[in-house]
Amino acid sequence: MSRKGTFYIVGVGPGDPELMTLKAARILEKCPAWLAPAARNNGDSTALTIVQGAVPSEGKNIVIHHFPMKKVPVAENPDSEIQKSWDKAANWVNDQLEQGVDVALPTLGDPAIYCTGFYVYKTLLAAHPDIHVEIIPGISAIGATAAAAKTPLCLGDEKLIVIPAVYENGKLRKTLEEFNSMVLMKVYKSMDRLVPLLKEMDLLDKAVLVERTSMGEQQVHYDLESVVGKKLHYFSTLIVRR
Ligand SMILES: C[S@@+](CC[C@H](N)C(=O)[O-])C[C@H]1O[C@@H](n2cnc3c(N)ncnc32)[C@H](O)[C@@H]1O
């Protein structure tokens, strides 16, 4: 039987190509086919841009695939547009693997954290249970944001939680009361609602927001009231640490 290719989901770090691991670079270099995720139709792939800062892409078969930016509640079935996009990606990957071609899907940060690559993996696995997959971890925006803000996330017996900012204020309040440290991702549209909550809980001076961590135009905001009413970049992460 001919050898099937391996599908690699590769974490490429938060933005600075120097924050890609040696292993991520080696795997991308050896894979002839790359499936690069893009948030917008016909848009650029941030993950691909990061990779191209560290790994030569000449001669690679690169497909930029649009994954719609929609909420995917884990306990529910995705809507048909999302499912179609996963199916299309999984079919392309499978065609390559069947021909013995190794495929890499570079993904921002770490693949274990809010990453579309896992949906492609799940879709592939359902149709082809014998698929070979390897996950290459990467530096998440979580650690990179803490580094940019020069703060630990947790020390000693402190508890840390990572949540998407889509939670409403009641739940966030309870969580903030329970955990010493909270990392809020996908906060870019939520700061107008979060800042008053933090103020009310007397936590404003315990919070820091980092936009575009390690991406060249990085901004570290300690004065959170100054970001209210401003358009923030999608790549923004908030840390609150009591
Ligand atoms: C879909 S999640 C992907 C997380 C990624 N897998 C990781 O490990 O960092 C996207 C969210 O990650 C955060 N993020 C990703 N890159 C970032 C960066 N360079 N600076 C700040 N936040 C970033 C933002 O909160 C953004 O809304």
Kindly describe this structure:
This protein has 242 residues and is an alpha/beta fold. The protein folds into 2 domains: 6-136, Tetrapyrrole methylase, N-terminal domain (Cobalt-precorrin-4 Transmethylase, domain 1, 3-Layer(aba) Sandwich), CATH 3.40.1010.10; 141-241, 2-Layer Sandwich (Methyltransferase, Cobalt-precorrin-4 Transmethylase, Domain 2). It contains 7 helices and 10 strands. The mean pLDDT is 94. The structure holds S-adenosylmethionine.
Report the span from N to C terminus: 58 Å
* Helical percentage: 25-40%
How many domains make up the 3D coordinates? 2
> What small molecules does the structure contain?
S-adenosylmethionine
Brief synopsis:
The chain has helices at 22-30, 46-52, 80-98, 117-127, 141-149, 169-178, 191-200; strands at 6-11, 33-38, 61-66, 103-107, 132-136, 160-164, 181-185, 207-211, 219-221, 236-241.
For the structure shown, list the relevant keywords.
242 residues, alpha/beta, Cobalt-precorrin-4 Transmethylase, domain 1, Methyltransferase, Cobalt-precorrin-4 Transmethylase, Domain 2, 2 domains, five-stranded parallel β-sheet, five-stranded mixed β-sheet, 10 strands, 31% helix, elongated, binds S-adenosylmethionine
Strand-helix topology:
Blueprint: E1 6-11, H1 22-30, E2 33-38, H2 46-52, E3 61-66, H3 80-98, E4 103-107, H4 117-127, E5 132-136, H5 141-149, E6 160-164, H6 169-178, E7 181-185, H7 191-200, E8 207-211, E9 219-221, E10 236-241
Parallel strand pairs: 1-4, 1-5, 2-3, 2-4, 6-7
Antiparallel strand pairs: 7-10, 8-9, 8-10
Helix pairs in contact: 3-4
The chain binds S-adenosylmethionine (SAM).
S-adenosylmethionine binds next to α5 and β10.
